[in-house]
Design brief:
Layout (H helix, E strand, L loop, with lengths): L4 H5 L26 E9 L4 E8 L2 E7 L10 E11 L7 E3 L7 E13 L3 H7 L1 E8 L3 E8 L6 E9 L2
Antiparallel strand pairs: 1-2, 1-6, 2-3, 3-4, 4-9, 5-6, 6-7, 7-8, 8-9
Length: about 160
Amino acid sequence: MRELSEYNAKRDFGLSKEPQGLKSKKKDTAESKRKLRFVIQYHESRAKHYDLRLEHGGVLLSWAVPKGLSEKPNEYRLAVHVEDHPIEYRNFEGTIPQGEYGGGTVTIWDKGFFEYLCDMPKGLESGNIRFHLHGQKLNGVWSLVRKKGDAKTWFVVASQTEE
């Protein structure tokens, strides 16, 4: 299971209604044997953006995508890798108080299930993650590609989308 210490350190849970990053007491079923969840949240903070969150290793891997995911094949969009979030964050909507990390309103823009089309640990290490979203709004295949030599800077690009 991945760690949530960076997520917890950035938040004051006495002020924010965001879910706290606690280790699950339930035994997690192998990811390959169940549907994985994703969420895309619209975040009206200092800089408005979308947050792409993909379930992996008991957390949500997270990228801030300023312009959101494009549905046009081969159109690259900036995706900044941010700290892992707890699984419970996939249901979070609300206002984070101004002055707190990420202060502003968070709404769910899209959610659903997805599958990785790559070996996920290798994809994270190599900086190339391919996945198929089955959402309420988005349905298709995207890739996250890390900029060489920069752990935080990635790009998200549609390979194919379905109507």
